[in-house]
Amino acid sequence: MARVISVEAERFPIAGSFTISRGSKTEAEVITCAISENGHTGRGECVPYKRYGETMDGVSEAIEAMRERIAGGISRSALLDAMPAGAARNAIDCALWDLEAKIRGIPVATAIGAISLGALETAYTLSLGEPEAMAAQARANAARPLLKVKIGGNNDIALIRAVRQAAPDSRIILDANEGWTDDNIVANLAFAAEQGISLIEQPLPAGHDEILRHITHPVPICADESVHEAENLEGLVGLYDAVNIKLDKSGGLTAALLLRDRARELGFGVMVGCMVGTSLAMAPAVLLAQGADFVDLDGPLLLARDRVPGLVYQGSLVSPPDTALWG
C-alpha cells in the first residue's frame, strides 16, 4: 500500500511574547507532516524561519511537492539528495523516522544507538528587552541552572550585567543572533568573560565572521546561523569552538546525526537547540542531544499551550519522549 501524506499548518500561542534582535512574535507557527502506511502514522513538526527565507506557505508547498516520492516509499537517505536542508525536509524526515519505528516496533532511540537515555538539563531562554525587564526575567528564573539570554544590540554590556546580577548562580549562554560587529566584539567578549558567561552563540553575521580566527576567545563561541549541515563544518574550524545543531536547519534527524558526529570528529563542542515549537518538534532533538555539551530545548516551556501528550519537564530537566508522542 502506498504511503499517504498530510500537511497541516498549526499555531500555538506563546506565553507573552518572544523577542530577539530580529523582532518579536506572539505565537509559534509550525507545519506538521503526517505519513501513514498500513494503519501506522508517523509525524514530524517543523518551524519555517524567515531568516532563511522560509514561509509557512513555501514550506507546505515544498512538502506537498514530495507527495509522489513519499507515496513511492522514498528512503531517508534518498531524501537528503532530493531536498535541501531546511524546515520542509525536517518535517518529512522526522515523520519517516516515527513511521519506521511504529512499523518495525523498534524505538528511534534504539535505531540510532541512544541506549542509555536520561533526562537533560535544558537552557531556559530570556527574551530580549531593556535591562530592567531582562533582570526581572532572570530574577524570576534564577533557580534554573542554565539560562539563555537573547542580546544583540547597542546596550549588550548593560543587559549582561543586569542578568548576571539578577541570576548570580546560573550558568549563562548569550545568543547575539548575529547582532555584534567587528568594532564591539572584543570588548563584548572581554566583558562576557569577566561576568562568567559559559558560551556565546553566533555573535557576528554568518559569512562575515573571519575576525573570529584572529581574536582570542575568552568565552567559547558557538556557530548557529553559520552551520546547517556536516559539509559546512570544515570551513568553521578555527572560527568557532562549538556548533548549535537544530533539526530545522539541518533538515531532519538523519542529517543532524551526521552533523553531530562530524562535529565531534573535528573537535567542536556540541549544542542541540531548537526553534520555538511544540513537544513534537523537540522529541527527536532530545534523542539527538543525549551527551551534548549544551542543550537548549525549551520551546514548549515558552508556549501557553503545548501538544497532548507532550514532553515531561521538571524544572529545567526534560525527559526523553514517550513513544505516544514520537519515536
Automatic annotation (TrEMBL):
<protein>
    <recommendedName>
        <fullName>Dipeptide epimerase</fullName>
        <ecNumber>5.1.1.-</ecNumber>
    </recommendedName>
</protein>
<dbReference type="InterPro" id="IPR036849">
    <property type="entry name" value="Enolase-like_C_sf"/>
</dbReference>
<dbReference type="InterPro" id="IPR029017">
    <property type="entry name" value="Enolase-like_N"/>
</dbReference>
<feature type="domain" description="Mandelate racemase/muconate lactonizing enzyme C-terminal">
    <location>
        <begin position="131"/>
        <end position="222"/>
    </location>
</feature>
<keyword id="KW-1133">Transmembrane helix</keyword>
<dbReference type="InterPro" id="IPR029065">
    <property type="entry name" value="Enolase_C-like"/>
</dbReference>
<dbReference type="Pfam" id="PF13378">
    <property type="entry name" value="MR_MLE_C"/>
</dbReference>
<keyword id="KW-0472">Membrane</keyword>
<keyword id="KW-0460">Magnesium</keyword>
<dbReference type="InterPro" id="IPR013342">
    <property type="entry name" value="Mandelate_racemase_C"/>
</dbReference>
<feature type="transmembrane region" description="Helical">
    <location>
        <begin position="266"/>
        <end position="289"/>
    </location>
</feature>
<dbReference type="InterPro" id="IPR013341">
    <property type="entry name" value="Mandelate_racemase_N_dom"/>
</dbReference>
<dbReference type="Pfam" id="PF02746">
    <property type="entry name" value="MR_MLE_N"/>
</dbReference>
<keyword id="KW-0479">Metal-binding</keyword>
<keyword id="KW-0413">Isomerase</keyword>
<keyword id="KW-0812">Transmembrane</keyword>
<dbReference type="InterPro" id="IPR034603">
    <property type="entry name" value="Dipeptide_epimerase"/>
</dbReference>
<dbReference type="InterPro" id="IPR034593">
    <property type="entry name" value="DgoD-like"/>
</dbReference>
<comment type="similarity">
    <text>Belongs to the mandelate racemase/muconate lactonizing enzyme family.</text>
</comment>
